[in-house]
Design goal:
The protein is mainly beta. The chain has a single domain (2-272), classed as Lipocalin (Beta Barrel). 12% of the residues lie in helices and 57% in strands. The strands form three sheets. A ten-stranded antiparallel β-barrel has the order 2-3-4-5-6-8-9-12-13-14. A two-stranded parallel ribbon has the order 1-7. The termini are far apart.
């Protein structure tokens, strides 16, 4: 447990250092937000062959690790692991990808959150809550070829839908709405607009950067202000590819959330253009 506590402390220091944008996106409030664990992190990087690779379609398997923080003052912490498979296709200056995934993790709830001292039921105890989810991702890009085999994916659309299960969802369903903005539903969706640029070196190494901005497809109701609240996110991704491998580092800022993702995509099969 000491290792876990030390790890959470390290993550907290890092996230607080990079968190001003997350708090800005969420606005200023002393209210608490019980959100889905997939808020702002449900669209990790999906590798797609370059047009210059002369591949019409490819299948990838991928894994990624997520570490993040959420809620007011970023007091709650999330650790998660994801395994996925997706298919990517190229049609001229157009990319398309789609796939499925499964995630597991733990959501650590700060003991001083949510005024739970007013609830006598011991089942409302805070701490680590297991969560899991199965989901789908998809998207497309419109691209412009660049010199030396690179490309600019000028504009794209990414989307995701995840069905959550586990202790954290069960916990949120018990909490009265008066104690916070509380998302009690298993399905969480997100959609975003993207742009990405990739350079290809003579050695065959590919280096790219992707920017995405989006929002959740479901709003949360705020009983305090009698208004609806829609989560938003901004993600920044650096990725490096060589042969069949693509490694990525992604930083996501959202409404009262900030998290870091590290992952790898591996191409297990491809169809060459005729």
């Amino acid at each position: 447990m000491s290792f876990f506590s030390d790890y959470l402390t390290m993550i907290k220091k890092l996230l607080l250092f990079i968190s001003p944008l997350a708090l800005l996106l969420g606005g200023c409030s002393e209210y608490n937000y019980l959100q889905s664990p997939f808020t702002s992190n449900s669209n990790p990087y999906h590798a797609i062959p370059l047009q210059s690779d002369s591949i019409s379609g490819a299948t990838y398997i991928s894994t990624s690790f997520t570490a993040g923080s959420a809620n007011i003052d970023l007091k709650d912490y999330l650790l998660g692991f994801r395994a996925a498979v997706h298919r990517a296709n190229t049609f001229g200056n157009f990319h398309l990808y789609y796939g499925t995934n499964i995630s597991v993790g733990t959501y650590h709830m700060s003991p001083d959150d949510y005024n739970y001292q007013y609830i006598s039921d011991p089942s409302f105890r805070t701490g680590n809550k297991f969560f899991g989810g199965v989901g789908f991702n998809g998207g497309f890009n419109v691209l412009v070829p660049l010199r030396n085999g690179g490309e600019w994916r000028v504009v794209g659309l990414e989307g995701s839908a995840h069905n959550e299960f586990g202790e954290y969802l069960a916990f949120r369903r018990k909490i009265p709405d008066s104690l916070g903005v509380n998302y009690k539903y298993p399905w969480m969706g997100a959609v975003g607009i993207t742009t990405e640029i990739i350079a290809r070196r003579r050695s065959g190494t590919k280096i790219g950067y992707k920017l995405a901005m989006g929002l959740g497809t479901t709003s949360l109701h705020d009983n305090y202000s009698y208004s609806n609240y829609t989560p938003v996110y901004v993600s920044n991704t650096l990725h490096f590819g060589k042969d069949n491998w693509v490694t990525f580092f992604q930083l996501n800022f959202g409404s009262y959330t900030v998290n870091f993702q590290f992952g790898v995509n591996f191409m297990i099969g491809a169809s060459k253009k005729e």
